[in-house]
Write a structure and sequence with these properties.
The complex is a heterodimer. Chain A is α+β, with helices and mostly antiparallel strands. Chain A contains eight helices and 18 strands. By secondary structure, chain B is an alpha+beta fold. Classes of the chains: A alpha+beta, B alpha+beta. β13 of chain A pairs antiparallel with β1 of chain B.
């Protein structure tokens, strides 16, 4: 391993200018500090020990010209064509078992707290010794400009760029282009003319987006009111008849305990904002991924693709881990409300997440983006590079949309007027 | 797409016209209502602003049997409302007061 953050050189310390490091501790505090256990490491250690940082060599011929072969989901050596793959994390780290017994918050090494924001790493090429810079905010590989070796970031970085696992691309670029073209062609008539004119699906980019994949054990409870209809009758009021109802009112409570396996939430703050002013819901919609097939981290899977680093910690996402189980619990109890034929109004709720296990993953997305200048909106058509699920936001032509709405409205108004005239 | 919308609106107008217990003058609202419905239907079809990951359905969930009770607390003897006020039993993501 030969990597260091840029700009980490400290100025020489002047001994005549002592550094103030806070008021002195009391004797009890100093004794407590001396007796303290060493700081705990990650709850689940997921570092891929088989990789030396810097050069990922083909196990057969030693070449570093390695990349993902999408059609087989395996790494392929471009020199000798040997193919291999990393182990699935589900079995390697025991992620598929023990959800019922989870206690507290268990965090895998790659989902740990982000302690630095320096994205740029300088790596020393293992082939020729040259210093090569990698911007880990967008890529986890770089070519040595002297000897053409591919350098890889495999070890944990403090900025959250190296996850626990990666789910390789399965859909090829051509398949993604076909899906994006089909999606947009169904939405051509009312699309913004400039979008239609500038639409080039071949510009699609393969991106690994950061997610946190959570196993959790929770119990949710709800309290509200439900109504059961007891009678329905009609009364005549002038020329009209009015329907009335009678109903019994009940206080209803429900509780359910459940486990969730591989709940997937966005690990980048820019993507996690699903507000109406963004199109982030598009990328959110193409979830879920087959995260059970994620493999141990090996940055060679990212060669030829871009990546976005994680910038949200487990603590940032705790509110989401309460919100989503609350919704899941509500969906679970919904089928037990059939007797309340006039509906149920939930008024209070609570959730107790007894245990959760957090693993960070890079998940593969083919992304076609289009920036609409007049509204300053970034539109996406996104393809889940595992399942092929496609979703998108196509900018609309407001004049065409309004013309269509007015046409339909006019036709309906004409029909309504004709009915009124006929029944008068 | 447009044809489907017009047919849907026509069906709605026919239902209104034959329902009988409301004043037929309400039919005059069909034009503006149809225009707004057409606009929003097309807008949502293109922009998909209402879509998101259905994690309640698409996540692997193992639930134990639901526990619950009901207790009669009142009776409504006469109302024109056909359902309970504020029914949120199907809006799983709308949060209500949190119990501690």
């Amino acid at each position: 391993m030969a990597q260091r953050p840029q700009g980490d050189q400290q100025p020489p310390h002047d001994p005549k200018d002592p550094v103030f490091d806070g008021p002195p501790l009391s004797l009890e505090q100093e004794l407590a500090a001396a007796r303290a256990e060493p700081e705990a490491g990650a709850d689940i250690e997921t570092v891929n020990e088989s990789l030396a940082d810097g050069l990922n060599r083909c196990p057969k011929c030693g070449s570093t010209d390695v990349r993902l072969r999408g059609s087989t989901e395996m790494l392929v050596c471009l020199f000798c064509r040997h193919q291999w793959q990393e182990a699935r994390v589900e079995e390697a780290f025991g992620l598929g078992v023990g959800i019922d017994d989870l206690q507290g918050t268990v965090v895998a090494g790659g989902a740990g707290e982000i302690t630095g924001d320096d994205d740029v790493l300088t790596m020393t090429c293992g082939g020729c010794g040259a210093d090569v810079v990698v911007d880990t905010a967008h890529a986890m590989n770089a070519r040595c400009h002297w000897c053409r070796h591919t350098l890889n970031v495999n070890q944990r970085t403090p900025n959250g760029a190296v996850p626990d696992a990666v789910l390789p691309f399965r859909l090829t670029r051509d398949e993604a282009v076909a899906k994006i073209r089909a999606f947009a062609s169904k939405r051509r008539l009312f699309a913004h003319p400039r979008f239609t004119r500038e639409f080039v699906p071949e510009n699609v980019l393969g991106v690994y987006l950061p997610y946190l994949v959570i196993d959790a054990r929770a119990e949710a409870a709800y309290v509200g009111q439900g109504e059961v209809q007891t009678r329905r009758w009609t009364e005549k009021q002038g020329d009209n008849s009015v329907t009335y109802y009678a109903a019994d009112v009940y206080r209803v409570d429900r509780s359910v305990a459940f486990t969730v396996d591989d709940l997937t939430i966005e690990g980048a703050a820019d993507r996690a904002d699903l507000g109406s002013g963004t199109t982030n819901n598009i990328v959110n919609t193409i979830l879920p991924f087959d995260t059970k097939n994620a493999v141990k981290w090996n940055s060679s899977y990212l060669v030829g693709f871009t990546s976005e680093k994680r910038d949200l910690d487990v603590t940032d996402l705790q509110p989401v881990l309460e919100d989503q189980p609350l919704s899941i619990g509500r969906a679970q109890v919904h089928d037990t409300l059939g007797e309340f034929d006039r509906g149920v109004r939930w008024e209070a709720e609570k959730v107790d997440v007894g245990g959760s296990r957090w693993v960070s993953m890079y998940l593969p997305v083919w992304l076609y983006s289009y920036y609409q200048e007049n509204t300053r909106m970034l539109h996406y058509i996104a393809v889940n590079a595992r399942t092929g699920e496609t979703m998108g936001s196509v900018p609309v032509s407001q004049p065409r949309l309004i013309a269509a709405a007015l046409t339909v409205g006019t036709v309906l108004e004409g029909i309504a007027a004709a009915i009124l005239v006929a029944t008068a | 797409m447009i044809h489907d919308l017009v047919l849907q609106q026509l069906a709605a107008v026919t239902v209104w016209a034959t329902s009988g217990d409301e004043t037929p003058l309400w039919l005059l609202a069909a034009g503006p209502a149809g225009a707004v419905a057409t606009y929003w239907s097309l807008y949502r079809y293109y922009r998909n602003t209402d879509k998101s990951h259905a994690y309640e359905r698409d996540t692997l969930i193992a639930a134990q049997p639901v526990q619950g009770h009901r207790e009669k607390v009142g009776h409504i003897s006469r109302t024109r409302d056909s359902d309970i006020d504020g029914d949120n039993s199907s809006n799983h993501r709308v949060r209500v007061q949190r119990l501690e």
